[in-house]
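Rotation project, supervised by the postdoc (A.L.). Task for the rotation student: set up a whole-complex structure prediction and record inputs and outputs verbatim in this book. Inputs entered:
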Amino acid sequence: MDVWGDSYTIGKWQDLIVETLESGDSTPIFNINPKDTREFDAIFLGGGAAGRFGAAYLRALGGRVLIIDRWPFLGGSCPHQACVPHHLFSDCAAQLMLERTFSSKLWFQNLEDKIVSIKNIVDLFRNGRTGPHAVMNYQSKEQLGLEFVLNAESEIIDANTVKIGKRKYQAKNLVLALGAKPLVADIPGASLKGVFNSLTLVEKLDYEPGNTIVVIGGGKSAIEYGCFFNATGRRTLVIARHQLMPMLKDAESRSYAILMMEEQGMEFLEYAEISNIQGDLQGKVKSVSIRTADGTINVDTDFVFMGLGEQANSEMIAQKLALETGEKGFIKINRHMQTSVHNVYAVGDVTGSPMEMFKARKEGVCAAKNIMGQTSEYKAADYPDFMHTHYEVCWLGLSEEEARQRHANVKVMKLPPDNPNGLDVGLPAGDRMMLYLMAKPRMSGFQKLIIDGDTRKILGAFHIGYGAKDGFQYLNFLVKKGLTIDDLADMDELFISPSYFIQLCRLRAGDPHFNNM
Amino acid sequence: MDVWGDSYTIGKWQDLIVETLESGDSTPIFNINPKDTREFDAIFLGGGAAGRFGAAYLRALGGRVLIIDRWPFLGGSCPHQACVPHHLFSDCAAQLMLERTFSSKLWFQNLEDKIVSIKNIVDLFRNGRTGPHAVMNYQSKEQLGLEFVLNAESEIIDANTVKIGKRKYQAKNLVLALGAKPLVADIPGASLKGVFNSLTLVEKLDYEPGNTIVVIGGGKSAIEYGCFFNATGRRTLVIARHQLMPMLKDAESRSYAILMMEEQGMEFLEYAEISNIQGDLQGKVKSVSIRTADGTINVDTDFVFMGLGEQANSEMIAQKLALETGEKGFIKINRHMQTSVHNVYAVGDVTGSPMEMFKARKEGVCAAKNIMGQTSEYKAADYPDFMHTHYEVCWLGLSEEEARQRHANVKVMKLPPDNPNGLDVGLPAGDRMMLYLMAKPRMSGFQKLIIDGDTRKILGAFHIGYGAKDGFQYLNFLVKKGLTIDDLADMDELFISPSYFIQLCRLRAGDPHFNNM
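Outputs recorded:
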């Protein structure tokens, strides 16, 4: 079908997307301007974070661009299978932790020992996910004026030519924005029914998991989904080959995050690995064997979750175009986003870590600039980061340990302060933290600012709580520009601010030789 | 009692504060260094936001300072009667709106038509509020090395001399940081039992309010407490003399905020006023008479809340020292925080609006600098701002209307976009918004960025949702320094970010003549 001439509201897009997904109709949706006779400067294969942003930028620079995507919507896996369900599940974890903490108190229901349906939450997501898809189609077509073909199986002819059915499209450049998918571990039993990853959980879950869940991995995905499973009331065992949450480098912040998970009943086995997943006669998981330093243990479960990172969606295309790839199929690129093949670029998750939205989008923009004749380089570095436990955990810059290795005079400001009472004190407080503050203050968060006492520059920041994630975006930009304790002390805080960095700095800033706090 | 020589943990402070408050013991708590023979550079009367931060800064600059406060804790009214209970109540409003929206769905209990106890929440606060007090005493004594006298009735002898019991203290300067208290409207019946303001609500509520609550006022306090009362399940009628929420100047943002409150069942009477509050034979409120453009109406209620702004705690001191004061008793100061009397400064809420933490604290710091011989000026301007409805509402800079008056080429980027579907679309999304996004997208927030299309500078930002408040602190600092759409487009977003400003700018930034979005 051709939609170029018609104005599509968000509602009309939503109807079309739902209908196409439900029916499995394979008719492509063409949105191409028949009156534009220019050759395409680029075809973007994949309209997710990297492809859509790259294409929008290329068009903003005055070029002509075509996006081709296999789904009937732009936006890619994020709203369909990745970031959006993850955030929904993490919101549920936060909400359930609160309800369990206040079980039978105030107006709260009794949730003690009650198990909450995972399948109902997954179904809620499946039924609700097309809304953001529709907004992105609307925004791309009506607001950004992009040309695209959706719901399309495309065939790569060569580095300048793509076919969709009988229609052939040519472009000066090809940009591969094909994304990634969860890694499947090479463990006996990994393909049994009941073994899920973040993608298959939302696409294939068709039963209610039992009371024990085994999570494989110790990184972001394993912890985020593990906390959700735990919050639903199930025994949740996390099996990590290495240290938990190695990306959170500040030891004190990591300890707080892990302590709070343990207090919610999460069980961790570090430096352990799954040796085997056993199935029943119907081919469904019934137990796992876990190899630990103390020998092998067996755990009965009907639900195993693999949170092991990602591999590139590059097999076919890499072969077809003879592209150089590395580990896990990630396509090799230089700082201009150029692959080993002339006029072929690659952007986003298909080029490897960090598997984050800003990196995908900025790689897309970088490719667009180079294609349009601007010389542009990009390499993700010095970026802020976050993950969810039952909390939001945000960080930027150096950990206290890293800072002390590099600087002679490191100062720390944190809440709660070091004290014989440990965490059982009434600060920090912030939005969505107030009920904890009043009844169980140790749960009200942890935050820490690392400062170079000589230059007075901020070196790092850490926050476990709620409501600081948006701010870490702006704070990171400032820190990279040399933000000092004196700059922070002069800002206007919105009290009660989830992060206390401004006010803590103000209490100290008058002193040229300030102490920790 | 003298505590200088002893090390007080947070726990020990908490015990002392609770005991003192409960017993009504009027013994002052002296924390004065007997070995320091220097004269005090300043005595701060009041150890709240303005006094404690001013004193800490003065000491950081090398001076000697004494804080005197009538309460057995530092930190002032904020954690005891003002910001902290307000945030607790607003958290409850957010939580209850979510639970009501999802009533009987997923794991949520049935809250339909159920009324939640206000008194239990007030009691929770009363029992929990001493935690932050204890942290501030600990921080002030052990970390900041401040000298203070708490739980003290002080007598002002002259501009340099204060007496506490038989002890007399002299200082080169006196800094008045005495705060403010809620205004009481001059309405017949305003002193009946059952008429509350933010202070008396937490100090005096001793019954469970009935099913109808009348709120007087249309500003921050009235709306914030009104939303809380509404969320508990009660009919809540807000009576405003003027337009609701006049401080939120962007008309579209204000409309969204008001629409969401109306959908929760809030009732508003604008351009109306209470003419009379009627009591029963026991002296308790039984109804109110409201004068509107269409005549007078009567509403039965046993609970009236006055959210009318503040007046200064200045009566006695202004008279004693013959200080110039203005409307509502606010002490007149110049940009150096000097009052009309030599060597007497005034800082914080006692000097008038904005009644915000950053302003109080920065006035305290400004006074400290001037006292210590640095010439410092301060006048609160161009600050970010926020309030709570059931949501967090944040803003900074110019509204769209203000921007169009001052600039020829104003661009707007917002979510959700203008569309025939209005608000019923699936974006924005962000932390704590995901359940709404999936089931009732119109409730998932509104956000707007105002840009000068010529200079590409950000002029204003508005956000209704959760999780952007902390970021507005840093964003405001950047906007004042000339932040552009191109700067934003180059930042690293933490996706899903509650505010979409970075990504929206990136989609447009390639175009020298970008359009609205």
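Student's summary: The CA atoms of residues 63 and 288 of chain A lie 54 Å apart.
Supervisor addendum: Chain A has a mean pLDDT of 97.
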